[in-house]
Amino acid sequence: MDAICVIIAAKNAATTIATAVRSALREPAVAEVIVVDDGSTDETADVARCADDGSGRLNVISFSENRGPAAARNYAIKLSSSPLIAILDADDFFIEGRFDPMLQQQDWDFIADNIVFTTDASGAVEPQPFLPRARRLSALHFIEGNISQPGVRRGEIGFLKPVMRRSFLEAHDLRYDESLRLGEDYDFYLRALLRGARYTIIEHCGYAAVVRADSLSGQHRTEDLRRLWKADSAIRAQTLPPEIDAALARHEKHIRDRYELRAFLDRKAKAGKAAAIRHLLASPGAIPAVLNGVLRDKIGAIRKRAEPETPSSAAIRYLMPGVPVPQK
């Protein structure tokens, strides 16, 4: 069985990093755990080291300044030597036994399992056992699965955390785009798929994503949206099959519309409503995106106020449906 390097990019994750590190070290297939402390101002690095199990597999590196998750992951890939690479977010954790069902599959370059979304950050979540039914993910389905739909809860395919073969990354000189602070995973996986990566998904659930109000992924800047939109544009500059180009054009528009709305709201917050309207009139093509976005946000706020309160500890859901393992 090939050994796995688990890469954890962390910024100000002192309250969660220990659970993440312990969940990775618990897995027998893991030969390396590399934590990159990405310019934290708290005790992230020290807490990560305290979670060591003494096996010699943990390596904690600290950046003097924040460089972003893409740069942190690229640095860890360069340092590591294992033939397989897995990404773990610093506020998430692995379910015990995560890798066995994936490593039993054949003929893949990337392989991902189901994700359980939970508010329980203790690492004690026990997800529903699903059969490890496998299917191949195409570039077209990947793009379409990353276009958010109104009223649909968070859980796009881009949130999958695949195990990756180092040999494929090296053969295609594939690394994360360090200019991106939002959607760097989406961009990375899409470029891999367009280079012919065999991406397998199984329904078995081995990854727990902790839903947090203060998650860094929810704190993106307007500039981050612009860069992601431009990354789509750069990919579309190459020759693509028509159906993939059409899907990517829809994703690009989806991101650009979000950018236009944020740019309008930024101008309104900084210079007032009249300045924001002048800004919008100077870019008439952005008017539908802004009007639709404002209306959508208002409707969303009304619906949220109308929803009954539910205990957060009960919140648990899966990214993908699955067939439960039959009871014996």
TrEMBL record:
It comes from the Bacteria. CDD domains: Glyco_tranf_GTA_type. Residues 5-168 form the Glycosyltransferase 2-like domain. Signal peptide: none annotated. Transmembrane segments: none annotated. This is Glycosyltransferase family 2 protein. It comes from Pseudorhizobium endolithicum. The lineage of its organism: Bacteria, Pseudomonadati, Pseudomonadota, Alphaproteobacteria, Hyphomicrobiales.
